[in-house]
Amino acid sequence: MAVDLGASSGRVMVGRLSDGRLEASEVARFPNGPVAVPAGERETLHWDVLRLYDEVVAGLRAAAREHGPLASVGIDSWAVDYGLLDADGALLGNPVHYRDARTEGVPEQVFAHLPAPWLYARNGLQVLPFNTVFQLAAATGSAQLAAAERLLLVPDLLGHWLSGAVVAEVTNASTTGLLDVTTRRWSDDVLSAFAAAYGTDVTRLLPRLVEPGTVVGRLRPGVGAGEAALVAVGSHDTASAVAAVPARTENFAYVSCGTWSLVGLELDAPVLSEAGRRANFTNELGVDGTVRYLRNVMGLWVLQECLRTWEEEGRAVGLAELLAATRAQPPLERVIDLDDAAFLPPGDMPARVAKALARTGQPAPQTPPELARCVLDSLALAYRRTVRQAAELSGHRVDVVHVVGGGSRNELLCQLTADATGLPVVAGPAEGTAVGNLLTQAQAAGALSPGLGALREVVAASTPTRRYEPQDDPARWRAAEQRLWG
Questions:
Q1: β-strand pairing of 229-232 with 208-210
Q2: Do the Cβ atoms of 186 and 179 come closer than 8 Å?
Q3: pLDDT value of position 486
Q4: ω into residue 369 within 30 of 0, thus cis?
Q5: What residues have CB less than 8 Å from 218, skipping those under 6 apart?
Q6: pTM for the whole thing?
Q7: In whole angstroms, what is the distance from residue 413 CA to residue 327 CA?
Q8: DSSP 3-state assignment of 120?
Q9: Using the 8-state DSSP alphabet, how is residue 58 labeled?
Q10: Closest Cα partner for 466 from 389, 414, 395?
Q11: Is the alpha carbon torsion for 207, 211, 215, 219 positive or negative?
């Protein structure tokens, strides 16, 4: 069973492997999102992790009732966020949401003690204000951090409650900024420097690291879903999604497209060049000893927030109808840099898009389809830029782009991605994260040969894909890119 937790929803899926094909079905789905709680003079965004755990347990029990005894369970989620436990194992408050404002300006403060080039040479991470190392710096001096005895990333925290296991799975741990991306171990250099700068010994909080495919425990009897093995999968959802790319060649780029878009390449070793750091590329660990060389792109979050804002204003817009109308809009009339920090927090996204357009002398959208076209064109343009930069920085050729995740269902975005990159796009599987999660469990059980090649053969045999060929004039996209970034 795969527990797949995204930033806006979670689901429980059951998979059965038979004759080289995976059959997967959804057992439960539930909403997820931030909860704003007063904290002094401001509000803090939290995850309601207790409700998530309750939903996961309900899903486990439903799966066991509907499908019989479960062989194993794997959990994946978003990255960077964590829960703190005290000496009795009790949770010290709900985890803070990565979109909370507490880390604004913190990376620059950290770099005063741990210079950015020095840090990148060890952890290889793109600078994002919510990386765990910056969250911990922001939490320094708090009563909560002082009382903590253990730090567990979200999927490991839920796994701990299910089984008692105390581990850190490496694909998610690699997003903390505390791990050495070359050795795949916690970085003594970073941890020592952090302790010297902030007077906080984070090392004592960190559990042992495990690789995807490790059986870390069994479900507690109190869970009520049998004695299934708990398997550490690629617990960073992107790691599981990339594992499920049905690639036939090593010369591929991927776009794991959902609330966020993770755009990059799969490599055998990290790229720790100064040029890569300046381009803000990240090296995150993947399944089967791989490295995911990528950059976070804001993704469909901006469009999701637009839909939410319109609904709150009493003019709800259906996504299917919006995309159909968007297709008829003229291409590339308006483009914005979706990686602008203004688009990170929740809020009135249509107003922010209009403001970004005004700053660059472009007219504000007058209708939802015009705004949606601006967002999708800008997203495809960001994919173009990121794929090209990843290839140049790594010296790795790209012949095809694979789009996995919910965004693979967006036909307009997939076609725009092919047009923007000038490369064929293969879309699917839409449930890539859950598929990668389930098949990693199958390998742990010995039901599937080890290695990504064997896993991807099953993906290709089990899930339909759609191919998009470039149709637009490449010069149009070059001109748009020049207009936006110079």
A1: unpaired
A2: yes
A3: 81
A4: no
A5: 163, 227, 228, 229, 230
A6: 0.94
A7: 10
A8: helix
A9: H
A10: 414
A11: positive
Judge whether 237 counts as a catalytic residue: yes
**Strands of 106-220, DSSP E:** 150-153, 167-169, 179-180, 185-186, 208-210, 214-218
Decide: residue 261, CB within 10 A, 0-12 exposed, 13-18 middle, 19+ buried.
buried
Assess if CATH 3.30.420.40 describes domain 246-428+465-486: yes
The DSSP line for 14-28 is EEEEETTEEEEEEEE
Segment 442-471 mean pLDDT: 96
Bridge-partner residues for 215, per DSSP?
A: 231
Please count the CA atoms within 13 angstroms of the CA of 86 that sit on its side-chain side.
Answer: 10
In the chain, the percentage of residues whose pLDDT exceeds 70 is 100
Domain-wise residue ranges, the chain: 2-232, 246-428+465-486
Cβ–Cβ < 8 Å for 262, 301 = no
Beta partners for 263? 255, 295
| 437, 234 Cβ separation under 8 angstroms | yes
Which of the following is catalytic: 237, 288, 377, 419?
A: 237
CA pair distance 317, 311, nearest whole angstrom: 7
- Which residues does 310 contact at the CB level (< 8 Å), separation at least 6? 316, 317, 350, 368
d(CA 259, CA 299): 5
pLDDT digits (tens, 9 = 90+) for 280-296: 999 999 999 999 999 99
| Token representation of residue 294 | 């990528």
Q: Tell me the sheet residues that pair with 150.
A: 85
H-only helix segments in 313-447: 319-327, 349-359, 368-394, 411-421, 432-444
Angle at Cα 476 formed by Cα 475 and Cα 480, nearest 5°?
115
Q: Which residue type sits at 27?
A: V
Write the pLDDT tens digit of every residue in 415-451.
999 999 999 999 999 999 999 999 999 999 999 999 9
- CA atoms 410, 464, 248, 19: torsion sign: positive
DSSP codes joined into one string, 123-153: H-----TTSHHHHHHHHTT-HHHHH-SEEEE
Domains 2-232 and 246-428+465-486 belong to one CATH topology: yes
The CATH number of the domain covering residues in 2-232: 3.30.420.40
What's the rounded Cα separation, in Å, for the pair 176 and 19?
A: 39
Interatomic CA distance for residues 99 and 337, integer angstroms: 19
Contact 254, 401 (CB under 8 A): yes
